[in-house]
Design a protein that fits this description.
mainly alpha, 66 residues, flat
């Protein structure tokens, strides 16, 4: 049953979300590699992981404080 719910959750995401999830997973795997070959998106995710920042969440409005 657990596998089926994961499959349904995966299918519920659009192509962009699946692409972002794959890039995050690849960046996590690249943490342990000496010289990984990554796409620009994966490099950004890796940089965020290394600096302990959370990746940017697109689609959310941010407020600018002055």
């Amino acid at each position: 049953m657990e596998d089926q719910s994961m499959i349904m959750a995966f299918e519920a995401k659009d192509k962009t979300e699946r692409f972002m999830d794959a890039a995050k997973e690849r960046a996590r795997a690249a943490l342990h590699e000496t010289s990984p070959k990554l796409t620009s998106l994966e490099k950004g995710m890796l940089k965020a992981l290394k600096s302990r920042q959370r990746p940017v969440k697109h689609g959310q409005k941010t407020t600018v404080r002055s």
